[in-house]
User: Fold these one by one.
Assistant:
Number 1:
Amino acid sequence: MKARARWVAAGLVLAACTGEPSVRVERDRPRDAAPAALDAGTADSQAGFVGVLIAGEAVDIAPRIAGRVAQVHVRVGERVAAGALIAEMDSALLAEEVRAAEAALRAVEAASREADVGVAEATWLVDGERAAVAAGTSPRNNLEAAELALQKAKAVADRARSTLAEQRTRLAAAQSRHVETAIRTPFAGTVAIRYRDAGANVSAGAPIVRVVGDGEVRLRFAVPPERVDRLAVGTEVDVQIETQPTPRTAIVRYLSPVVDSASRMVIVEGELTAVASGLAPLRPGLAVTVRLR
């Protein structure tokens, strides 16, 4: 029975940790992931329901770009502040991309300035021809030719400005990718898992480190659908934690609206009530037994 409980609890922990490899924050919301199957014989109001303590806030920190991990600055168990530098991706290629984009932008800026000079020159010629035509010293067709040249110069200037805007966008994108080589944590917490080491090649979204927040742990357990009608948000339940001698009280906060198709169970989450100090700290992953009142 104890081995079965640990197996089911491990499934609940896995449900809390799986998902898309990205910077994904889990905070005060229902989970749809389901634990391993639990037969009704081990989950009734007398024997209790198998559950697990989960982190109230956790994140898998992953790069947004593919590449080689240059450095990982933290180790398992290390405390980190919000915004702390967790890891760095190899930025050599991206730095070169930024330099190339900057050079291209300078060239486009020069071309744009040259186009503006062309417009100014064509405008001056039109003004001169217009005055000459008015004075009768130049034929009308010279003015028409000058006006056509001005239209062409303006078209060249418009195209240059469009190219300039496009190149500025490319430079901004290259700079953004370069900045993203520095990977930071969104909140303060403790490093729970280090998935990758320096030198590893990773794809975009592949987690490098998992950080668990400083908030209180939460309760998660599984209930057969035929018994979930005994629970509602606000219901109090008794929780026996494997590392503590006396039961704790928890309040149900969330009930999954669906029955998991694989396990045929409903996932419930709760919040542990306050308890007197002096007890060992609670850690995510501890197995618990939940009993209804």
Number 2:
Amino acid sequence: MLQTFNEKNRDLLVNISGKLLHRDAAGISPFDSAVQGGDAVWEGLRVYDGRVFKLTEHLDRLRSSAKALAFAEIPTNAHMLDEIKKTLAANNMHDAVHIRLTLTRGLKVTSGMDPRLNQSGPTLIVLAEHKAPVYGTTGLSLITSSVRRFPPDCLDPKIHHCNLIQSILAKIEANTAGADDALMLDKQGFVAETNATHVFIVTAGVVETSRLVACPEGITRDTVLHLCRVHNIAHAERDISLTEVYRADEMFCTGTMGELAAVTTVDSRPIADRTPGPMTQRLSALYRELTASEGVRVV
């Protein structure tokens, strides 16, 4: 689903390494590692009534990804929280806000791939926008992409990096096919995730999702599994084939940008009766209860 421009965002102030700049004036150096090679990590955060949901988990994952990429310097959670608060205050934001938090390796002394060329950094970018969840409530259509997700021995998905070419290629296929997103498989042909979200199916009352082999450690994914444990909902993490997707009773995807969203068709084949199922609706309601009551106060 294509997002349209939100007039509220016309005069956003963007935070780049502590400096607040108008969106039209904001920029990073062509010598920054993000420009030179996509050498950066990122997180998506959502603000609900002045609180960021699962903030600590997101900041920990950002720092974990930067550590895996051997960043020489990594900001503390406290420093990043201060910059998030400063950005939200400057934009007078408190609800229905999405934050794109990016940490790059920093500036290079000359163009090139070698991290030894980085002699200052990192660069922290806080981009906060007025943005509702990106998916509608009637159900998504997916197509199976020809682009496969990497296993850990090719590029470990536990690194939440900014080089999104794999996902972009899959999204292009979805756009061309007139679908909302693309379902991506691993090298063995099992479901990994979509180009943007984790995937769950429901069969005979059991909520199932892929193992963490070719998909990242999803925070919304983990929250759904937590809800299943707390509310005694049968669930499993295992390899899932396309056949099992096609014959599932329900299907939904999860992510910070879109929360929980039902999937109603895959490869033009209906999932059950093409409507969001009862388990999807139940878990969505439980998730909304969490976001309404939990989170780190930032405003």
